[in-house]
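Milestone 3.1: sequence recovery, worked example.
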């Protein structure tokens, strides 16, 4: 097949999928307000990338074969919608897993490569369904009151498997074509039924997706960020879903169960670090603008906070550059970012993000959450008063400063801002997971050798 246009993408969603939102089943995604912005963004991406010809392929299916190509891909990623970014990262994560399991399972590696080609040739979008419901976190999958708390194989057939469970926090699942299911953690011997990875079309019988969204439904002018950039969050239910063998990438091999999560974590953390670097610069820009509008840009403690924000943004970007500069090649010639620098940079960026937001709120002041709406600014009677009293230093009337406050609120202190605070920590796994991986890949022997040399101690 050739690449899809935006219209063809929208038509492809009318495939019998079962989508739920606001307590009802959604029969037409295109007319439901919760999905309108997301569909516009993804369809717009299809339009921008579309090229005619049966051999045309989207750049989001690039497999980097050098550090330069990896950097090029990452630069492109920041300009894509979330669904396209997720597709690129997820498929590269699958290829990373394929490279790691190939020595033990050539068949699974081949199926993954075939699936990559299928998505590329049909110009499909896919999301990664990894986080299970988990039930009692202190119990293993087999020790749960409900064994479906972790997605599992409930039936094995000659031609495939049947899976049951739920996957949570699956951004943009409802507006994608494919679900890539993988284990949420390492499974142990005896937990073979929960060691499952596979690819499932969204419209497969038994798949149901319940959606939430942080997007505003009205007062769009007061939400300059989230009204233009939002995606539905999917609660994916797998109610005895059949998966044919060619789409099964793991079915009981517990020794490979963590490989998929680690591979996905690597690529999600790289993408998360790239966004943290961009958001860090954005926070600096907002802080400087609001300080200037308030006339406080020369106040010592505000200058210090902005300087700290500058250092934060710069160090996150430096970690991102190091992850690319130290990328490593697989036996197939595919380049993957450095595990050490990716995880260290993502951890630092995520752990300190809330402090940078706090600095911005301290610099901006209470009007971040109390500024009148734009409709009130434009009101014939009270609008002139708002413009008069919201005016700041060298900003003309108060509309400029009011809009700046709304941007800060929407970006950092409202529904979208709350979503960002949680997402920055949780994307690619929580902070603890990043510490574990960074420690695993840190050259500890070299560090110990330096310490021994300093202490004048020889070690055989």
């Amino acid at each position: 097949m050739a690449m899809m246009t935006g219209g063809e993408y929208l038509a492809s969603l009318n495939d019998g999928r079962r989508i739920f939102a606001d307590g009802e089943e959604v029969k037409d995604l295109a007319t439901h307000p919760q999905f309108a912005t997301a569909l516009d963004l993804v369809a717009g991406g299809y339009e921008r990338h579309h090229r005619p010809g049966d051999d045309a392929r989207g750049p989001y299916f690039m497999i980097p074969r050098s550090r330069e190509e990896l950097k090029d891909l990452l630069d492109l990623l920041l300009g894509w919608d979330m669904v396209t970014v997720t597709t690129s990262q997820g498929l590269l994560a699958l290829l990373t897993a394929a490279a790691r399991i190939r020595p033990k399972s050539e068949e699974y590696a081949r199926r993954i490569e075939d699936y990559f080609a299928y998505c590329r040739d049909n110009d499909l979008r896919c999301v990664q369904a990894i986080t299970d419901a988990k039930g009692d976190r202190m119990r293993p999958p087999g020790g749960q009151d409900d064994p479906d708390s972790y997605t599992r194989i409930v039936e094995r057939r000659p031609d495939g498997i049947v899976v049951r469970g739920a996957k949570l926090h699956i951004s943009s699942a409802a507006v994608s074509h494919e679900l890539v299911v993988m284990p949420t953690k390492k499974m142990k011997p005896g937990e073979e039924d929960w060691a499952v990875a596979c690819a499932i079309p969204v419209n497969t019988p038994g798949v149901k997706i319940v959606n939430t969204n942080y997007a505003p439904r009205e007062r769009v002018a007061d939400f300059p960020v989230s009204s233009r950039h939002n995606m539905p969050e999917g609660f994916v239910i797998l109610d005895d879903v059949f998966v044919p063998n060619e789409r099964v990438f793991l079915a009981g091999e517990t020794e490979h169960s963590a490989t998929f999560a680690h591979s996905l974590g690597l690529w999600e953390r790289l993408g998360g670090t790239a966004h943290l670097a961009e958001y860090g610069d954005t926070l600096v820009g907002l802080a400087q603008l609001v300080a200037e509008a308030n006339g406080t840009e020369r106040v010592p403690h505000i200058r210090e906070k902005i300087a700290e924000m500058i250092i934060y943004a710069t160090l996150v970007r430096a970690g991102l550059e190091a992850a690319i500069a130290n990328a490593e090649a697989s036996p197939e010639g595919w380049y993957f970012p450095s595990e050490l620098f990716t995880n260290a940079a993502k951890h630092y960026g995520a752990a300190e993000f809330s402090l940078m937001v706090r600095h911005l709120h301290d610099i901006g002041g209470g009007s971040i959450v109390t500024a009148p709406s734009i409709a009130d600014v434009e009101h014939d009677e009270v609008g002139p008063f708002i413009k008069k009293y919201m005016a700041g230093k060298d900003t003309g009337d108060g509309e400029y400063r009011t809009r700046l406050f709304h941007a800060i609120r929407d970006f950092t202190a409202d529904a979208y801002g709350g979503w960002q605070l949680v997402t920055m920590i949780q994307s690619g796994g929580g902070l603890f997971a990043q510490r574990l991986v960074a420690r695993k890949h840190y050259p500890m022997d070299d560090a110990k050798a330096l310490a021994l040399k300093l202490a004048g101690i020889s070690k055989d």
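Residues 258-448 form a domain with the Butyryl-CoA Dehydrogenase, subunit A; domain 3 fold (CATH 1.20.140.10). The first strand starts at residue 19 and ends at 21.
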